[in-house]
Backbone:
């Protein structure tokens, strides 16, 4: 299996969270909700990665939900950092 990085996770979330504008020009996106990391969990499952240490790292760095991972954590945990395997 090829090693995955936080950059791979950020790219996945960028597509899944889908930041966009509505008809009125307001920013909208899809998020699993406050305190949830469902898209992160889905990524970990698909990639056979251990969710728990990734969740801990994300939450410790401001990633309380899927969209916050992109807003907060992406600037703290570098793209090239490897994700732990399951």
Residues:
């Amino acid at each position: 299996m090829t090693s995955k990085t936080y950059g791979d996770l950020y790219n996945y979330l960028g597509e899944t969270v889908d930041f966009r504008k509505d008809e009125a020009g307001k920013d909208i996106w899809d998020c699993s909700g406050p305190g949830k990391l469902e898209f992160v969990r889905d990524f970990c499952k698909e990639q056979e990665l251990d969710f728990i240490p990734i969740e801990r790292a994300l939450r410790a760095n401001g990633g309380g939900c899927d969209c916050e991972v992109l807003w907060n954590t992406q600037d703290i945990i570098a793209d090239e950092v490897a994700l732990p395997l399951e």
